[in-house]
Every structure is written in structure tokens, then in C-alpha cells.
Amino acid sequence: MTLSLAACAESDDGGGGGGGAGADETGPIKIGAVLDITGAGASLGVPERQALELLAGQLEEEGGIDGREVELIIEDNQSTEDGAAKAMNKLVNEDEVDIVLGASRTGPSLAMRPIAESTETPMISLAANQAIVEGSEWVFKTAQNDRVVIERMIDYMAEQGWTTVGLARDASGFGEGVAEMFDEIGAEQGISVVATEKFAPDATDFTAQMVNLRDAGADVNVIWGIPPAAGLAQRAYDQLGIETPVMQSHGIGNQVFLDTAGDAAEGMVAPLGRLVVADQLPADDPQKEIITSFIDDYTAEYGAGPSTFSGHAYDAWQLAIDALSEEGTDPQAIREHLEGVTDFTGISGIFTMTPEDHAGLPKEALALVTVEGGQWKLVPDEGN
Amino acid sequence: MTDLLQLLFAGLSQGAVYALVAIGFVAIFTVSGVINLAQGEFAALAGLVAISAVGSGLPLLAAVVLAVVSVALVAVIMERLVIFPVKRMTTLVSLILTLGVSTGLKALMLLVYGPNAEGLTPLTPGGFSVAGVSIRYQELWILLIAGLVSLAVYWFYERTLAGKSLRACAEQPVAARLVGISLTKASLISFLIAGTVGAIAGVLASPIYFTSWESGLTLGLKGFVAATLGGLISVRGAVLGGLLLGVLETLTAGYISTGLRDAVAFLLLIIVLVARPAGIFGRTAEARV
């Protein structure tokens, strides 16, 4: 799956100036991407691929980076850890890419991390779990950390006066450590998890988990997963007639969730990127312009709007292009550039990276969103 | 008590889908000794055909009929192209051949329908609640139609001359040919039945359990386990095996751990193959190995 972009100028005038001494300054700049295009993560990986292909096409029209061709190589990891590691190895060793984007989900991203670290290849993951970048040197990420998501959710729970939480979480990397983090962050407000249920990312029947949540009798239940599983779980929850309010994670920001959950999603609350409620943002929102123009371009190309996941891909691509055009292809220079990113306005939020924080998004990057009449709706809340 | 009933009901409706897939395995195996690993793909394909037909504006019932007919046709074509030309068919050869077909069908579905999982519109949307147990109308449809289809297939194989002559092909191929039963025709009919039953399972399950290009894999494996519980040659055993598997899975998920859910089928398979290779419901006299 290779998308090759023709160079507009053959001349090689040294790129964006100041490429490191050992950097390869000839031939195309290569960006690799490892995405969950098939398998359980397909509802994430497909829009991410579409966003990257759109952006690569736009860059080609602009003539690449300072006239240098940019080649995008996309690999499908089939939503598996070993697939991700294999794809990462291929991109680094065979294709010799300058930077890698992906993977779409936590598990595959974690499988790629040691390869990025040992081969000193800059990598920007699109997944959520903080463990992907914790203590990393070469790995960055664009999806909001699960920690800031949980902070946002705890704020809302405290506002509502809820103290006990029932959790049904994804059994894969995305849900790993979530219950512990709820307890840790919620401790101050006296909020704790009283029941934890798990489901496989490709599960289809959720009766057992939801029955157990019902019996736990918590103030609020949290479903932590990605569509379609998250949507089916929401449906099972509604179908069992459980009246307790339900919150979901930022893993559900796409149309697939609305389609799978249907009416059952009405009233559910989730912290999501602003992309899904772009039309409801105030005119002075600093992200409004960039989000709106991405939505317009994406919709014009694919006939349907983008998801928050395509937003994560957009941000990773822009961060990569920014670093490549400023620093050339020297990996160390790219790494240092990414680490110094300050107030970089993206789709998922405004990024400020530091050597300690390779995710760069605060909890303000998330808006509390509900579903009304099958549409995403901004929740009136002090943080929004 | 409410929980137990709820779990039992969820398990039965899931089990009914396994049962239908299992009948497909049995229908073919009893006639030609072929284990058709593409059985799960029949269900997935039917679901996807129906979803895309509804998406392009066809009424639900027409879409369902279209899906069942086209998958039955696929099964028949498969038999003619892949099974019929092989002169000396053994169960091992059949496994390899049908695994190939299954992989091919999966790739084709991915290509045509894309990687996303989707659900078909339910026959009757919504549901109701009895004594705290929530029931979806679609689940009732699954149980009802699965029951009728099982009865029809059972009646065909056990009570009609045509069905009996099909089974004769497997038990005494030479004698069957001597009395004028066409082996090739029998194999074709068995694939037609398996395709139809698999397709019905696919369109019934899709509204609740969703369909994607790869959902046939799990469904096929579970169906195979269910069929094996019944010794692979008994329609009644396959149905009971499917229901038992569905219920055990949900109870395991509810009372032990959701992580063990998918392990149940294979634990069961190992136990049965070791302890009772003829199936837990089968009489040992029925063993044909």
C-alpha cells in the first residue's frame, strides 16, 4: 500500500536548512505509517489512512517539502501486536523511513515502541494509553492521554456528585490500567471504582458484563472501549434497561459509534476532541478554523465527515511535516524538534511537548459531549 | 435469579446461531465426509450482502431473501468448482480445500465491503422486559427461525427418502450408487442446504452480533465445536451442541470471567474429542470413524 508522490522539482537544495550532518539529503523524504486498517481497530485505522492520504495529496500539490518529494508508505498491522512490530521493522529496515506514524491503538503502538527506541527512529503514535510515551525518548503521540481523559471525567463526576464508578473496559492495551487510574485521580474527590468488567475488542455479546454492572449499583457506569464494541456495549446497557448514567471514553469519536449504538447512545456523556462538535464551537475558539478547514477538505474528498481518529492522524502528520521541514531528515534533530513543540494548534488540541511529556495535551483538549437526536452535542459544562 | 435468566436467554439466542452454523457442517459431513471450513464465511457473506442491499434501498425482507439465495448459490458453485472435481476426496483434503475457499471469500469480502463491522436492520426493532429479563424481538426471531430450520433439516434427512438416500451416500457409497443414488448430486444438495442454513444464521445474527468480513472465523469455529459435540453426523446433536455452547459461554462470562468466554468452546472441544469422540449426545453406534 504505497502512495508515491511525484516531486515537483528535481533539484535538491538542501531541504529546509540545517539538516544534521549525517542526514540523507537526497531522494524522497519517507514517512511510514502503521495503522489498524483491518481487524478490531478498523473503525480507527480506516479514517486515519484516509486523512493521511488526503494530506499527502495536498502536500504533493504544494510541491513537497521545499521541492523535495515526500513519500507516504502505509502498512496494515491487522490490529495485532505482532503485525505492528513486523510492519515497523519493515518500514525502518527495508524502506528506511525518516519517521513513523501510528499505530492506531495502544497494544500495537506498544509493540512498535522498542523498535523505535532501539533504531532511534522518531515515532508518533495515534493511540491513547499514556504508557506508550512514558519515559520514552523517541516516541510521541497525538491522541489525548488516558490520564487527561480520566481527569476530565472525574471533574464531571464530582460536579454531578457521583462517587462510585462501575467500569466495563476493553481487555486490550487501551483499557489496561484504567481502573487504577480512576482510583488514583478520583481519590481526592472520594471517587472510586467499585466493579470492573472486561470485554475483548472484537466482542459481540455484552449481556454478562452489563448484568454484572447493573448488580454493582454504582452511581455512574463507564464503558471504556472503541467502536463497534463500545457501541454494542452501550446498546446492551440500554437494552437491559439500566437507568444509571453512563459515560464513555474518548475512544468513540466516530460515526461508527453513533451507528452501532443507535438510540441507546442518547444522553451518554464522553470527553471527546472538539472535531465532533466543530459546528457548535464559539467563533473565537483557537482550534475552530483549523478543524473546520480539515472537515471541509475531508468531506469534499470522501463524501463523509472525519472522525476524531482522523484528527489524531492529521496532528501526527502536521507535527511530522513541521519537524521535517524545519530540521531535514536527521533523526536526532527531528526528535529534539518534536520535544520542543510549543502551542501547536491541531485537531485534537493545542500541543506543548516537553522532554517529560511526549503527548503534549492538557485536559482542556477535551470537550464533554453527549448524543442528542443521533448527533454529537456539546454539554453545557464549565470546562467547555 | 433475574441475572441467571437473563444470561440463559442471551446464551440461548447466541447458541441458536451456533446451532444453525453447526447444522451446515453436519449437512455436508454426513453426505460426503467433507468438513467445510467456509461454513462461517457463508454466514458472514449473507450478513454483508443483506446489509449492503438494505443500504442501497431494498426492503429488508427482499434483502434477506437476496442474501440467502446468493449465498446458497455461492455454496453450490463452490461445490462444483472445488469439491466435485476432486477424484479421491478425504476429510484431510477437504479441510485444505475449504480452508482455501474460506480465505478467498474473506479476502473478497474485505475488498468489496471494507473492513468495518456493521449490523443489519432487525426484523422487528426494539424489545420488552419480562420479570426483569430484557428480551429483544430479534432474539425471539432467532430462536423461532432457528427452531423451524432445524426441524426442517432434521425432517429432510431423517424422514424423507431423498434425505435418507443422501445419508446412504456417506455410509455405503458403493451400495448407494448400486441402487441408483447419484453421489455427485447428493454432494451438491448438501452444499445447497449448508449454504442456505449458514446464510440464514448470518442474516439472523447480524442485527445483534454484527457482521464484518472476518466474523465468519469465530462463528465457523464455534459452529464446528457445536457440531462436534453432536458427533458431526447428527442434526439434533448439532442443535443441542450449539445451544449448550451458547449458554455455557454466557454463564462463564457472567459468573467466572469474561476473559474465559472464548476459551469455553475449545476446552469443551478438547474434552469431548478425548472423552467422547462420537459426541456427547450421539450413540456410540453412530460413530463412523
TrEMBL record, chain A:
<feature type="domain" description="Leucine-binding protein">
    <location>
        <begin position="28"/>
        <end position="374"/>
    </location>
</feature>
<dbReference type="InterPro" id="IPR028082">
    <property type="entry name" value="Peripla_BP_I"/>
</dbReference>
<dbReference type="InterPro" id="IPR028081">
    <property type="entry name" value="Leu-bd"/>
</dbReference>
<dbReference type="Pfam" id="PF13458">
    <property type="entry name" value="Peripla_BP_6"/>
</dbReference>
<dbReference type="InterPro" id="IPR051010">
    <property type="entry name" value="BCAA_transport"/>
</dbReference>
<protein>
    <submittedName>
        <fullName>Branched-chain amino acid ABC transporter substrate-binding protein</fullName>
    </submittedName>
</protein>
<keyword id="KW-0732">Signal</keyword>
<comment type="similarity">
    <text>Belongs to the leucine-binding protein family.</text>
</comment>
Automatic annotation (TrEMBL), chain B:
<protein>
    <submittedName>
        <fullName>Branched-chain amino acid ABC transporter permease</fullName>
    </submittedName>
</protein>
<dbReference type="InterPro" id="IPR001851">
    <property type="entry name" value="ABC_transp_permease"/>
</dbReference>
<keyword id="KW-1003">Cell membrane</keyword>
<keyword id="KW-1133">Transmembrane helix</keyword>
<feature type="transmembrane region" description="Helical">
    <location>
        <begin position="140"/>
        <end position="157"/>
    </location>
</feature>
<keyword id="KW-0472">Membrane</keyword>
<dbReference type="GO" id="GO:0022857">
    <property type="term" value="F:transmembrane transporter activity"/>
</dbReference>
<feature type="transmembrane region" description="Helical">
    <location>
        <begin position="229"/>
        <end position="251"/>
    </location>
</feature>
<feature type="transmembrane region" description="Helical">
    <location>
        <begin position="89"/>
        <end position="113"/>
    </location>
</feature>
<keyword id="KW-0813">Transport</keyword>
<keyword id="KW-0029">Amino-acid transport</keyword>
<comment type="similarity">
    <text>Belongs to the binding-protein-dependent transport system permease family. LivHM subfamily.</text>
</comment>
<feature type="transmembrane region" description="Helical">
    <location>
        <begin position="263"/>
        <end position="282"/>
    </location>
</feature>
<feature type="transmembrane region" description="Helical">
    <location>
        <begin position="44"/>
        <end position="77"/>
    </location>
</feature>
<dbReference type="GO" id="GO:0006865">
    <property type="term" value="P:amino acid transport"/>
</dbReference>
<feature type="transmembrane region" description="Helical">
    <location>
        <begin position="186"/>
        <end position="209"/>
    </location>
</feature>
<dbReference type="Pfam" id="PF02653">
    <property type="entry name" value="BPD_transp_2"/>
</dbReference>
<dbReference type="GO" id="GO:0005886">
    <property type="term" value="C:plasma membrane"/>
</dbReference>
<feature type="transmembrane region" description="Helical">
    <location>
        <begin position="16"/>
        <end position="38"/>
    </location>
</feature>
<dbReference type="InterPro" id="IPR052157">
    <property type="entry name" value="BCAA_transport_permease"/>
</dbReference>
<keyword id="KW-0812">Transmembrane</keyword>
